[in-house]
Amino acid sequence: MIRCIEATQLLSEKLDRPLSKKEKVNLGIHTAMCPACRQFGKHMLILRDVSQRYVSQTGDSEDQTPKDR
Question: Whole-structure pTM over 0.90, yes or no?
Answer without folding.
Answer: no
